[in-house]
Amino acid sequence: MNAPIRIDTASASRNPTPADLTITVRDERFNRGTTPRRWWAGDAFGTAWHNALSATFPRGEAFFIEAVKAHRDGADPQLAAEIRAFVKQEINHTREHIAFNRLAEDAGYDIKAIDKRVEELLALTKGRPPIANLAVTMALEHYTAMMAHEFLANPKHFENSDAEVREMWRWHAVEEIEHKGVAYDTWNHATRDWSGWKSWKTRSLVMVLVTGRFFKNRWVDSMNLLAQDGITGWKARWGLFKYLTITPGVVRRIFPAWLAYFKPGFHPWDHDDRELIGKYSGDFEAALMPAE
User: Fold this and answer.
1) pTM, two decimal places
2) Range of the domain at 209
3) 111: in domain
4) At a CB cut-off of 8 Å and minimum separation 6, what does 105 contact?
5) Contact between residue 223 and residue 240 where contact means Cβ atoms under 8 Å apart
6) Is residue 237, in this structure, part of any structural domain at all?
7) pLDDT digit string, tens, across residues 88-105
8) Which one of 82, 109, 146, 259 has the fewest beta carbons within 10 angstroms of its own beta carbon?
């Protein structure tokens, strides 16, 4: 019963998704104890950035699930299997980030304002065409995949962080890479009657809009959390900018992958980085969930 979900795309020609892709649902649990206040190597900037990201995940990933599920009708068996695996993984991610966010609050951080902003932004999507929500999901899933690749490819990002928090982010990153093409495959299915130009123009425009909002809101959220650590003004701004663009520089490092999204004919699996999954997935083998 405890088997990975094999996505057999050998006969599919719709995208470059690997023919032997396996999406494994790992039912892991983390952060049920205590975590240091500044869990990212004792550094306030890395801690603030990742706490701000985590605070958005419970509502954000629920939004992703609904956006993808809204377009599953008529999906071929391969895509239907992708979507089922995606939903199971995202449900587990939501649960674990709720637990992590609770620890952040126990450490004294007030993240309710971040959650409230996400709630208000998602309320604006009510009544919007479902394809618009899928386009946003596709863009944000590319962000999670880019950061997941960077976190696994460069262990220095978390090497001195709290061990259990590090394991949570590694586990999340492994599964984000595995399902990085699902929203995109769903988009291709949902827009199969569109012209190539219309599809490219829409996803590119949405990525630009999502990028602006993503960095604006995460910057504001991180500044708020840093202020709660007593760090404000130029010291907060420079410290966060240095963290994101210089050392370890996650934003600088993911820029080429972000730019690739605008290439006509782009697909997330143009870059097969499953070797990163192999480096870490064995750590979580005891937590496999049933495939179906």
Assistant:
1) 0.91
2) 38-284
3) yes
4) 111
5) yes
6) yes
7) 999 999 999 999 999 999
8) 259
